[in-house]
Design a protein that fits this description.
By secondary structure, this protein is an alpha/beta fold. The protein has 24 helices and 16 strands. Strands 2, 4, 5, 6, 7, 8, 9, 10, 11, 14, 15 and 16 form a 12-stranded mixed sheet that branches. Strand 6, helix 7 and strand 7 form a beta-alpha-beta unit.
Length: 571
């Protein structure tokens, strides 16, 4: 050994003796450790801590909650454990898998086109129980008006539609359970063009309100449920809070809701991995805008949309301009559903995961959910954003099974019936919307769209018009026996319209009909008008009595100065 060599020379000589394969193996080990932590993989913790049994589901609800005692306590899935698919033991892998693969079931929807009063078009994609039972059916068959089969309305997330994997999992599972499902696609999605000067956003509840009211009018005997996912969950909860008890729904579920958009906006720009989601969502929004460039280039800042590098940039150049919001923060604050949780009066199941890489757990309104007896909040330790895949093959989605069980138990109990009896049922108001004359469109697996028209002769259409009018008249006569003080005009307004058959009223022709939101507020005021008037009279008397009493006393003194004794006139 040559002692004249420096220690560094000896070190380099020693390192040169190590085979290249060992260096590659070490580099691979370091890379795996980095990815394990960067992707938040938890397979080793699942093995060591739980022995692949999964973590228990945490339930948050109000003390003495009847909803928990009657419904949630009977849901075995909510009281069980959730174990993620071993090769998807990461919130990012779960989220990516549901976005790019998801292994959805194969089936075809039937489509209706719903036209709103402002000229917008919404695609309603139906999946009937008969569609998934493997029986031969006539695709032109529709739901009977007196059908009592429950209907579940599904509201997709941001830039998602009925073709998304998680939506197909949910629709197929519920239809397989014997119910009917209708996916309410957002404006401009589902292969439908934007036909009005408005696009959907995270706080726009008017579309789902009109859809729910329309379905309630068309199928009054069918219980209505709703399930919202991600942004759709935020819209659903906000709608439930805005309308309170005046709502036709009997149950709902909100999955991976954003809750507070301002907090989620801060969170998605906090870490490097979250910025990938921000960029991915921005690309999706830009793709959505590109599909509708002729309209959005006129309504929004098109150059700003193309240069957007984040969701916040897109909202600044598009959403705020079209939705008339002053700033992006103003839009986020007004559209967040967290502030509406306390007013929810419909049985609601909320499912969130603590490792959601998009909708952070920091936005979950824990105290508000615990204070509302109509809400059950279920949280899992893992699951990603709308992932929750389970089993070795990842063919099952945990939250889909949990929602299906919760709604089934809710419908089988008398809880929803007692809730409906305890709260006043508002009289339905006419909807300024319509379903196109060719109601159903068949969407094949290849994406081809074919219209399905019920072939009727002119005579049959006239007979249908007469029969439908007769049914409405008989129902109105029954309502008169309950409230005899209603005028004929009020009876006509409470009749559920069927746009294909209804005739325009004189008010509609003259253009004097109030907008739907204004009419809704007027109807609410009219129901409480009697009590409100007497309450205002009482308040007016109490608050003005000191002034009026003093003036009246002075007037009496002057009027009856000679007639009254001096003792009564005061000193």
């Amino acid at each position: 050994m040559d002692f004249s060599d420096s220690p560094y020379d000896l070190l380099f000589k020693s390192l040169s003796l190590i085979p290249i394969s060992h260096y590659l193996l070490g580099f691979l080990l370091i890379l795996l450790v980095f990815l394990y932590n960067f992707l938040e993989i938890h397979i080793l913790r699942d093995l060591i801590i739980t022995g692949f049994r999964g973590h228990p589901v945490s339930l948050t609800f109000a003390s003495g909650s009847e909803l928990y005692q009657v419904v949630a306590s009977k849901c075995q899935i909510l009281h069980g454990r959730y174990l993620a698919t071993p090769w998807l033991s990461s919130p990012h892998l779960q989220t990516a898998f549901v976005s790019f693969c998801g292994r959805p079931p194969i089936f075809s929807y039937r489509r209706q086109l719903f036209h709103t009063s402002d000229g917008g078009t919404i695609a309603l994609d139906w999946l009937m129980n008969s569609d998934v039972m493997g029986v031969a059916i006539n695709m032109s068959d529709t739901i009977c008006k007196d059908d009592k089969t429950p209907i579940v309305i599904v509201i997709p997330g941001l830039t998602s539609d009925s073709s998304s994997a998680y939506i197909k999992h949910l629709a197929f599972k519920i239809a397989k359970s014997g119910w009917n499902v209708v996916v309410s696609n957002h404006r401009g999605l589902g292969g439908i063009s934007i036909t009005s000067d408005f696009m959907y956003n995270a706080g726009w509840t008017e579309d789902i309100r009109k859809i729910v009211d329309h379905l309630h009018c068309q199928y009054p005997e069918a219980p209505l449920f709703a399930v919202g996912t991600s942004i759709g969950a935020n819209v659903l909860v906000k709608y439930l809070g805005e309308d309170g008890v005046n709502i036709p729904l009997v149950g709902a579920a909100a999955i991976c809701s954003t809750w507070d958009l301002l907090i989620c906006d801060r969170f998605i720009n906090r870490k490097l991995v979250q910025k990938f989601y921000d960029k991915a969502l921005t690309i999706g929004l830009q793709g959505y805008a590109q599909l509708h460039q002729p309209i959005l280039s006129r309504l929004a800042d098109w150059e700003g949309i193309k240069k957007s590098r984040s969701v916040r940039d897109f909202d600044n150049h598009a959403t705020c301009l079209i939705g008339k919001y002053e700033t992006v923060d103003t839009y986020y604050r007004r559209s967040s559903s967290a502030s509406f949780v306390g007013n929810v009066s419909v049985p609601l199941l909320c499912i969130s995961t603590l490792d959601d890489p998009v909708c952070t757990r920091e936005a979950i309104p824990w105290d508000e959910c615990k204070a509302n007896k109509n809400i059950i909040l279920a949280t899992t330790k893992h699951g990603g954003h709308l992932g929750f895949f389970e089993g070795l093959t990842a063919h099952s989605v945990w939250w889909v099974r949990a929602v299906d069980e919760f709604l089934s138990v809710l419908h089988s109990t008398q809880f929803i019936h007692r809730k409906k009896e305890a709260q006043p049922s508002p009289s339905p108001t006419p909807l300024e919307s319509s379903i196109d004359q060719s109601p159903y469109v068949n969407i094949t697996e290849e994406g081809m769209v074919t219209a399905i028209v019920n072939k009727k002769t002119d005579m049959e259409e006239e007979e249908g018009l007469y029969h439908d009018h007769k049914l409405h008249t008989e129902k109105d006569d029954d309502k008169v026996s309950v409230a005899e003080s209603s005028s004929n005009k009020d009876e006509e307004e409470t009749t559920c319209p069927k746009t294909e058959l209804s005739q325009p009223s004189e008010e509609d022709v003259n253009g004097t009909t109030a907008p739907a939101p204004a009419r809704r507020r007027m109807d609410r005021l009219s129901r409480y008008g009697g009590k409100s008037i007497w309450l205002l009279v009482y308040i007016a008397i109490v608050t003005t009595w000191p002034l009026v009493g003093s003036a009246l006393l002075v007037f009496l003194k002057r009027k009856f100065k000679k007639a009254l004794p001096a003792a009564l006139l005061g000193r």
